[in-house]
Write a structure and sequence with these properties.
This protein is mainly α. It has 22 helices and 2 strands.
Length: 506
């Protein structure tokens, strides 16, 4: 008993401190924004995942996203100079889904929008500190985007809670969420139980047929939309109310002695000088010179072309590294700048040589989609080298400040050119002029867009065509392709001007 007198007088064990729940500031505008976010998620899922092909539905989804940003952040944030340029580019790329039917362009534009729209969206946040021409802004905006998706996922549930937070309002919210959860589980479990018991399957056959014919796709889209809405609303919430940003750490200036760089540049300059000397013999020697070495002109024109484009990318990377990280003083820096200038000149000559060789090949075999895109790629690389020359002459300026706008302008230009129509016109002209009797109709019809149909209609419809299914006529293939265009336009999400024009062409 005496020992008991020395025990501490505590009633119970100490409770660990509980973490305070997040408190979200919710206004009436936030509740309206939550409804708009749910609508956008449903539209995005419907047009991106469930549409037969990407068409005007994706255009509508991008436009609605910017209406959400306008409602969330106001005109002042959306129409700043930098923001307005990216806004115009993104809206133009979105509009291409309503205009074009080339599957390659569609896929590339989806990838471009998946990068450019988040970069633009996060650039509207007041927490962003890096300007658009600094490469580090990509990392900063990526962090902003992903942290925004997850840092306020409780905000939509707080927005669903009525302002008073009374017991009745909480009970109403719990009832709504319970009903939604029950509906989702029933849609999942009823088919599972039907497959497990034949009697239950027979009893619920009519119900399942009704759901499958009218509600299956809509329920799946709604489920996806409900899953995505908290994350997208969290992002919008954080754009409206950004977390305090950390002070930027001063950038560490990394530099090295220029000796290693100028030795590397000198080796590349000598290598490309020798290469260009050998190649000039083929360029100016003509077919006789090549045939003496067992090569045809077309074989030589095509050989190694794509490798040359890859080499120019390596050259640009080495050049920028040398100019950026070399000590900017002394003879080493002078040598780096001189040899870098020589490398730029040689790289431009390499690109010109590659373009000449490709032109020789196109003269022999005609245009194709890949060859046109390759011409565009060579032009873009030439502009990037000119931007590197500008950086070399004005070392205090940022290469990306010129390269980023060049890349955007080049991509917009690629979307403005009717590539498929140019390819089809070139191929048909070669047939009509008697330059060639070979025409890959299957490639022009199936691999390219509906824009090739008007050009192919210039040919005799009774022309025999051999496909994987057998022998047929050109007119039969054109009729089949037009019927595919009509089917595509019958779904508003997949509608595009190219398919519509093909479907109405008689």
């Amino acid at each position: 008993m005496s020992d008991l007198n020395h025990l501490p007088l505590t009633v119970g064990a100490a409770k660990p401190a509980q973490k305070a729940a997040k408190i979200y500031e919710i206004t009436a505008a936030d509740r309206l924004l939550l409804g708009g976010t749910l609508l956008w998620c449903f539209l995005a899922v419907d047009t991106f995942l469930f549409a037969p092909v990407w068409g005007i539905g994706l255009t509508a989804a991008v436009v609605l996203w910017y209406f959400l940003l306008l409602a969330a952040l106001g005109r002042k944030a959306l129409f700043r100079r930098e923001s307005a340029i990216l806004l115009a580019v993104n809206l133009f790329l979105a509009a291409t889904f309503a205009l074009q039917s080339n599957s390659w362009i569609r896929g590339w534009n989806v990838l471009a929008l998946l990068v450019l729209v988040p970069v633009h969206t996060c650039g509207l946040s007041a927490a962003m500190q890096f300007p658009w021409w600094r490469p580090r802004m990509l990392r900063e905006r990526a962090v902003c985007f992903f942290s925004g998706l997850f840092s306020a996922v409780g905000a939509p549930f707080a927005a669903l809670m009525p302002a008073g937070k009374s017991r009745d309002s909480r009970r109403l919210l719990s009832t709504v969420l319970g009903c939604c959860g029950a509906a989702v589980l029933l849609c999942i479990l009823v088919p599972v139980l039907s497959s497990a018991d034949a009697l239950f399957a027979a009893a619920t056959a009519d119900l399942r047929r009704l759901i499958r014919s009218h509600f299956t796709t809509s329920l799946a889209e709604l489920l996806w939309a409900l899953i995505l809405t908290p994350f997208l609303f969290s992002l919008l919430y954080r754009l409206r109310r950004p977390l305090p940003s950390k002070a930027l750490l001063p950038e560490k200036t990394v530099s090295a002695d220029g000796t290693g760089f100028w030795i590397l540049l000198a080796a590349l300059d000598v290598l490309y000088f020798v290469f260009l000397l050998v190649q000039s013999a083929g360029l100016f020697g003509g077919p006789e010179y090549l045939s003496a070495r067992g090569l045809s002109y077309a074989q030589w024109a095509r050989s190694g072309f794509f490798q040359m484009v890859g080499v120019t990318i390596v050259n640009l990377s080495v050049l920028l590294a040398a100019v950026t990280f070399s000590h900017r003083q002394g003879r080493g820096w002078t040598a780096v700048r001189l040899l870098s200038g020589v490398l730029i000149a040689e790289s431009l000559v390499l690109l010109a040589s590659a373009a000449w060789r490709m032109s020789l090949y196109v003269g022999a075999y005609g245009l194709s989609f890949k060859r046109l895109v390759t011409y565009w790629g060579m032009g873009m690389m030439a502009f990037f080298f000119l931007a590197a020359l500008w950086k070399l002459l004005r070392t205090d300026r940022s290469f990306c400040r010129l390269a980023f706008p060049i890349a955007l302008a080049g991509w917009v230009l690629l979307n403005c050119v009717p590539l498929d129509a140019l390819v089809a016109r070139d191929q048909v002209d070669r047939v009509l002029s008697g330059e060639t009797a070979v025409l890959d109709v299957e490639y022009l019809l199936e691999d390219l867009s509906y824009d090739t149909l008007p050009q192919l209609a210039r040919l005799d419809g009774s022309r025999s065509v051999y496909t994987q299914e057998g022998k047929t006529t050109l007119e039969a293939l054109l009729t089949q392709r037009r019927s595919e265009a009509r089917a595509e336009c019958s779904d508003w999400r997949a509608w595009n001007l190219s398919a519509w024009r093909a479907s109405t062409d008689s």
